[in-house]
Write a structure and sequence with these properties.
This protein is mostly helical and 321 residues long. Helices cover 50% and strands 1% of the residues.
Length: 321
């Protein structure tokens, strides 16, 4: 996950609007102290410790070679040939709640749509995701508060898991990447719905889109669940319209302006339209996705090209599980 802070200005006032960024709040806005995002990081680290404790590599047969970092005893990692990300076996992840279509649909284990968000395939996977979460999430929580960012993070992770379960049947999946892509999606929609109050909006939008395209492009390689990334991004994108809407420029200062210059509505008409459309799409999307999933519908039957969004086969690698 790439750093999304490149080329951003500060959050100070500029002619024609404020500069896009998540720095200190402007006058009249509350600056929140971030605690939920760091708590998410602590929780994911704690869950990974539990993964390695349950895995107990030295106590297992090792057909792929000896455990890595054996001085960690039962916390040592599976052989590199088995898990190059320095983590537990796939059976341990499956046991602890990894996303697995068959068990969700035929064993009534829908809770895996939530637990998979907190599991990670290895130490490298964990470190990359948690550093990305800190870079992205702390700034967002400072600006918008823990309630809105917490909702976006959790629902985006859930939305990514639903899309992944619909389209990825033969593999297990774990990780917070869907939730992270949801935060990126929310940043894009926040910029769009508050378009008129920012001065450097075009440059900011282009920067965000480059970062997102690069990260989605990485997901086209084998063994990366790009469906979770896409589902999380789309969920966060829609939730950003709902939860990160700001009053139009001049609303906060209306009492200091002459009556002829005061704005009469808190939001612009296009903001109301985008909010309603996003709400309808969130409700319809989750309803259709969950109904299809628990009826056992294979999403690939309705989208024959969607598998290319998850992995593109080349002469150098195969996308077969």
């Amino acid at each position: 996950m790439a750093d999304v802070d490149a080329d951003r200005g500060g959050a100070g006032k500029r002619r024609g609007g404020r500069a896009y960024g998540y720095g200190p709040a402007d006058a009249g806005e509350r600056a929140w102290t971030p605690w939920l995002v760091p708590l998410f990081v602590v929780a994911c680290v704690a869950v990974f410790v539990v993964e390695m404790y349950v895995n107990n590599c030295p106590a297992r047969p090792q057909p792929y070679g000896s455990c890595v970092a054996r001085f960690l005893h039962r916390f040592s990692f599976q052989a590199i040939r088995q898990n190059p990300l320095l983590g537990p076996s796939s059976s341990t992840l499956e046991k602890l709640g990894a996303l697995e279509w068959y068990k969700i649909v035929h064993r009534n284990q829908g809770w895996r749509l939530v637990t998979c968000i907190w599991l990670h395939a290895g130490l490298i996977h964990l470190v990359v995701n948690m550093l990305s979460l800190l870079f992205i999430g702390v700034r967002l929580e400072q600006q918008f508060g823990f309630v809105r960012i917490g909702i976006i993070y959790l629902l985006s992770g859930f939305g990514g898991a639903v899309l992944s379960a619909l389209l990825l049947r033969n593999s297990i999946s774990v990780g917070a990447s869907g939730a992270l892509f949801g935060l990126l999606g929310a940043m894009v929609s926040e910029l769009i719905i508050n378009w008129t109050i920012y001065s450097n909006r075009v440059a900011a939008l282009l920067t965000l889109m480059v970062v997102i395209v690069i990260n989605l492009g990485i997901g086209l390689f084998p063994h990366v669940d790009n469906f979770a990334h896409i589902g999380g991004f789309l969920t966060g994108f829609l939730l950003g319209f709902l939860l990160l809407i700001r009053p139009q420029f001049g609303w906060m200062e209306r009492h200091d302006l002459p009556p002829s210059a005061q704005v009469t509505s808190k939001y612009k008409a296009y903001q109301y339209v985008l909010w309603v459309i996003a709400l309808l799409l969130v409700i319809v999307g989750f309803t259709i996705g969950l109904v299809m999933l628990f009826r056992g519908v294979n999403g690939n039957d309705h989208c024959h090209w969607c598998h290319y969004l998850n992995c593109v086969p080349t002469s150098r690698w195969s996308c077969e599980d």
